Amino acid sequence: MRTDYEVQQDVMDELQYEPSIDAAQIGVSSKNGVVTLSGTVKTYAEKESAAWTAERVSGVKAVVDEIKIQLLQAHERSDQDIAMAALQALEWHVQVPHTCIKMKVERGVITLEGDVDYRYEKIAAENAVRNLTGVLAVVNLINVKPVATPSEVKVQIANALRRAAEVDARKIKIEVRDDKVILRGRVRSWAERNEAERAAWAAPGVREVEDDLTVAA
């Protein structure tokens, strides 16, 4: 069991090591594996990167992100400017069905809505606008609409697992409830667990994946 101090120090070191972050103004505290980030950064992208960086540190069970964004004067943009840039970014991203997505901007916060067929399209839309100058937050309310029956989704996922070289599909049980996929069983490594989860997310209409797979000792 790692101590709170060890986790805190490792998160601080990882933030310092990550080149996309200026860690000088970021505070870190840790209690029972829950890491709290505080302080200020200059962009929303940097704030997101700080949270992701903390999550990947060994011993971290959860991250509470209390970091605030203080835009440089040169990075300040009106909502109209942000909206125009965001619309263009969505249109130019090849993985985004931009005609299916609606967007609004209020005080630097972009809200995305609409219906798409796949989760990767929802994520791609958010990624397209996250790094725009002047953005303070992105709220992704895009809906992944079911385009196949649960039985069809289960068959597609099972076939994808059988094709995957890194996965022993015989040890994984798949359950589909409407648009939710539940994975159970034992896998040999975290890489195999991640590959199984990726295969589940790739099925059309899946909006939630509950990964109950355990990694064998």
Number of strands: 11
The arrangement of helices and strands along the chain is HEEHEEHEEHEEHEEHE
Give the rounded overall mean pLDDT.
Answer: 91
Q: Briefly, what CATH class of the largest domain?
A: Alpha Beta
The CATH topology of the largest domain comes to Histidine-containing Protein, Chain: A
General description of the model:
The structure is a single chain. With 217 residues, this protein is α/β, with parallel strands linked by helices. It has three domains: 66 residues, Histidine-containing Protein, Chain: A; 70 residues, 2-Layer Sandwich (Histidine-containing Protein, Chain: A), CATH 3.30.1340; 66 residues, Histidine-containing Protein, Chain: A (2-Layer Sandwich), CATH 3.30.1340. It is built from six helices and eleven strands. Strands 1, 2, 3 and 4 form a four-stranded mixed beta sheet that branches. Strands 5, 6, 7 and 8 form a four-stranded mixed beta sheet that branches. Strands 9-10-11 form a three-stranded mixed beta sheet. Strand 5 and strand 6 form a beta hairpin. The longest helix has 14 residues. The protein is flat and about 55 Å long.
Main features:
alpha/beta; 6 helices; Histidine-containing Protein, Chain: A; single chain; 4-stranded mixed beta sheet; 36% helix; 11 strands; 217 residues
